[in-house]
Backbone:
C-alpha cells in the first residue's frame, strides 16, 4: 500500500489547485487508484483523510451542488485560508516570542512548530523570570471564541451552558472563562478545567461585547469573588493571629483591616461571593485564623470541622 | 521501526517545504536539526513528496532532490508558504506572550508586544481574548533585580515548618510562578545548596553584597520541581468533590476511581503543616491512607482549630 503521506499530499495539492469544488467521484478519478473503487470503502477512506487534514489545521470548504447534481457535495481548499499571510515579524520579535515560550511553556511541541512557521526556532532557555502556564484542551477553542465573539456551549456541573465568552483569565494558577450565561441571563465565571467534554463553538452567531467595552474591567480578579454560581457579594470578618498578620496584610492591603489588636493580631473584612473559596482561605491558616462573620457561614464552617474530626 | 503517524509527518513537511524553497539549497543535516527530525526520516519524506503530483504529471509539483547530503529545490509552485497558525498554535503563542508580558521587567512597547500585535492582526483579530493576571509583589520585582545584578541577600523567611520567621542568606538564580504562587530557586548559604523558597513568605529582604556561587547548569523547570525524590510522600483517599486537590497540586499518581468515585492519590508533602491545611480544606472528602502514623492528622488538626471556635470572644 502506498504511503498515506503521499495520498494526503496529493489530495491537498488537488484541492488547492482546483478552480471549482470537486466531487468525491472526481477526486478519486484524478488521484488514479489511490482510493478504493467500492463506494462505501472509498467514502470511508476519504472521510479519514479529511479528518487527518483537519487535524493538521487544513480547512476544506464544502459546497452542496444544485441543479442536475443536486445533493452532491463538492470539496476544495481556499488558498487564502490555507497559507499563512506574511505577518511582517522582525527577527527580534520572533526571538522575543521564543524567549516568552521558553519562559512559560518550555516543552511545548506545538509552540515550537508555531515558531518554525514564523521563521524562528524552538527551544532555548528562559530568562531568570519564568511562569508556568497550565495547559487545558478547551483553552484554544475558547480563546478563538472570545477573539471572534462567537457563543460557546459546554457541560458544566452536569448542565449544558450556553455562554458568550468575554475573556479568559489566568489567576492563581487557574484559567477562568468569564462571560454572559444565556441560560441564567447574567454574567458568570467558569473554571475552564471544570468544563466537561468538548466545547462547541457557534460560528454562525456573533455576539455583542459588554457595553462598557473594557473586558479587563469586567473580569473579577479576586479569587474569593470567583465561582460559577455567583450570588450577591457578602462581607466576611476574620480574625488573624499576630504571626500571620503581616502575610495577610500584604495579600489584601491595609485598607481591609478593621481592628489592630494590642497583641499584634488583626481583624479584617473581606468581600466574597464564593463560600467554598472563603472557607478554604480561612482554613489555610489553621488555628491562626477564625471566621467571625457572617454567622451562617461560621456555623457551616464549624460543622465542616466537626465532620473532619 | 515504528513510523511516526502520517499527520505528524505531513504537518512537519508543510513547515519544512516553504523554508527549503526560500533557501533553494541547504544541507540535510542543517534542515534535520532545525526541524528536530531524523536525517533518514527527512530524506525519506522529501523523496516521497517529490514523487507526489497530479495527472498528467507534466510538471513537478514539489521539485526537490537530494544529492550528497544536500537538498536542492527547484522552482516552487505549491506549498510556498507555511500553513496558517492553527487555533492551538495561536493560543500557545499568544498565551505565552501575554504571560511573559506580565513578568517583571517586560517592556510594554518592546519586541514581544509588537510581535503579539502582528500575530493578532494576522489572525484577523483585534482582541486576543486573554488576560493573564499574575500579581507580582514588590519582592518579586526586587528579586529579579537581585538576580540581574548577581547579588546576595538576607531575607526574613517564614517557612511552613518554623513557628516564627528566620533570617537566611540567599543567592537567588531564578524566580518563577507556578500554580498561582511565586517561588525562587536560590543558593541557600547556611545549608550550602540549591533550595526553593516561596516568595510570599519572605517578610523582608536586603542586599548585602555580591553573589559568590554560580548558577547550576540545570535548574528544576517550573512545574516539575516537586518531583524531588527526597520529599516525603503521603497517600490519600479522595472523594469526587475533592477532585480540585489533585487537579491543583502536583501529584505522583492518581488511581482509577473505585465504585463510589473515590481515588487514591500519592503526592509530595513539604511539611506537616502543609498537609494539615490540605486535609482541613478537604474536610470529610479525604482520608490519609499512608503512612499510617498520619491517619490521625486530619482529626487532630480539625479538633485544634475547632478549639478556637469554642472560645467566646
Residues:
Amino acid at each position: 500500500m502506498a504511503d498515506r503521506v503521499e495520498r494526503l499530499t496529493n489530495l491537498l495539492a488537488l484541492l488547492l489547485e482546483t478552480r471549482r469544488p470537486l466531487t468525491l467521484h472526481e477526486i478519486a478519478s484524478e488521484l488514479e487508484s489511490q482510493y478504493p473503487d467500492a463506494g462505501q470503502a472509498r467514502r470511508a477512506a476519504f472521510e479519514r483523510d479529511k479528518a487527518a487534514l483537519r487535524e493538521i489545521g487544513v480547512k476544506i470548504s464544502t459546497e452542496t451542488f444544485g441543479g442536475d447534481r443536486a445533493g452532491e457535495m463538492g470539496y476544495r481548499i481556499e488558498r487564502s485560508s490555507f497559507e499563512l499571510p506574511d505577518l511582517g515579524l522582525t527577527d527580534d520579535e520572533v526571538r522575543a516570542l521564543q524567549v516568552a515560550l521558553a519562559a512559560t511553556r518550555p516543552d511545548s511541541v506545538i509552540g515550537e512548530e508555531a515558531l518554525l512557521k514564523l521563521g524562528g526556532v524552538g527551544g532555548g532557555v528562559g530568562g531568570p523570570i519564568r511562569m508556568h502556564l497550565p495547559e487545558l484542551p478547551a483553552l484554544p477553542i475558547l480563546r478563538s471564541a472570545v477573539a471572534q465573539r462567537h457563543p460557546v456551549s459546554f457541560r458544566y456541573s452536569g448542565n449544558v451552558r450556553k455562554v458568550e465568552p468575554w475573556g479568559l483569565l489566568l489567576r492563581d494558577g487557574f484559567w477562568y472563562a468569564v462571560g454572559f450565561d444565556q441560560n441564567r441571563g447574567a454574567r458568570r465565571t467558569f473554571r475552564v478545567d471544570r468544563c466537561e467534554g468538548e466545547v462547541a463553538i457557534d460560528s454562525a452567531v456573533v455576539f455583542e461585547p459588554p457595553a462598557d467595552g473594557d473586558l479587563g474591567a469586567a473580569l473579577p480578579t479576586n479569587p474569593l469573588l470567583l465561582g460559577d454560581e455567583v450570588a450577591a457579594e457578602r462581607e466576611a470578618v476574620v480574625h488573624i493571629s499576630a504571626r500571620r498578620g503581616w502575610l495577610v496584610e500584604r495579600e489584601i492591603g491595609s485598607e481591609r483591616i478593621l481592628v489592630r489588636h494590642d497583641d499584634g493580631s488583626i481583624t479584617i473584612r473581606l468581600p466574597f461571593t464564593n463560600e467554598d473559596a472563603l472557607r478554604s482561605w480561612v482554613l489555610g491558616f489553621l488555628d491562626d485564623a477564625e471566621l467571625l462573620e457572617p454567622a451562617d457561614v461560621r456555623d457551616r464552617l464549624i460543622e465542616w470541622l466537626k465532620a473532619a474530626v | 521501526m515504528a513510523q511516526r503517524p502520517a499527520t505528524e509527518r505531513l504537518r512537519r513537511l508543510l513547515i519544512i517545504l516553504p523554508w527549503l524553497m526560500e533557501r533553494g539549497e541547504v544541507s540535510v543535516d542543517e534542515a534535520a536539526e532545525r526541524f528536530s527530525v531524523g536525517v533518514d526520516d527527512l530524506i525519506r519524506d522529501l523523496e516521497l513528496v517529490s514523487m507526489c503530483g497530479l495527472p498528467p504529471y507534466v510538471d513537478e509539483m514539489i521539485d526537490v532532490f537530494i544529492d550528497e547530503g544536500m537538498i536542492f529545490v527547484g522552482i516552487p509552485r505549491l506549498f510556498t508558504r507555511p500553513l496558517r497558525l492553527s487555533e492551538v498554535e495561536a493560543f500557545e503563542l499568544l498565551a505565552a506572550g501575554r504571560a511573559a508580558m506580565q513578568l517583571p521587567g517586560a517592556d510594554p512597547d518592546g519586541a514581544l508586544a509588537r510581535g503579539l500585535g502582528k500575530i493578532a492582526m494576522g489572525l484577523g483579530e483585534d482582541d486576543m481574548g486573554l488576560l493573564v493576571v499574575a500579581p507580582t509583589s514588590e519582592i518579586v520585582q526586587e528579586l529579579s533585580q537581585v538576580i540581574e545584578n548577581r547579588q546576595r541577600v538576607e531575607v526574613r523567611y517564614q517557612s511552613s515548618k518554623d513557628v516564627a520567621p528566620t533570617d537566611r542568606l540567599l543567592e537567588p538564580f531564578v524566580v518563577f510562578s507556578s500554580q498561582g504562587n511565586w517561588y525562587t530557586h536560590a543558593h541557600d548559604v547556611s545549608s550550602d545548596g540549591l533550595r526553593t523558597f516561596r516568595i510570599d513568605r519572605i517578610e523582608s529582604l536586603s542586599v548585602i553584597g555580591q553573589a559568590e556561587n554560580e548558577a547550576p547548569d540545570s535548574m528544576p523547570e517550573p512545574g516539575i520541581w516537586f518531583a524531588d525524590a527526597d520529599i516525603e510522600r503521603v497517600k490519600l483517599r479522595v472523594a469526587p468533590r475533592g477532585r480540585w486537590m489533585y487537579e491543583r497540586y502536583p501529584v505522583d499518581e492518581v488511581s482509577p476511581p473505585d465504585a463510589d468515585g473515590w481515588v487514591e492519590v500519592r503526592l509530595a508533602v513539604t511539611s506537616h503543616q502543609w498537609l494539615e491545611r490540605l486535609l482541613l480544606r478537604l474536610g470529610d472528602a479525604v482520608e490519609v491512607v499512608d503512612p499510617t502514623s498520619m491517619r490521625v492528622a486530619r482529626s487532630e488538626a480539625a479538633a485544634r482549630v475547632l478549639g478556637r471556635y469554642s472560645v467566646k470572644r
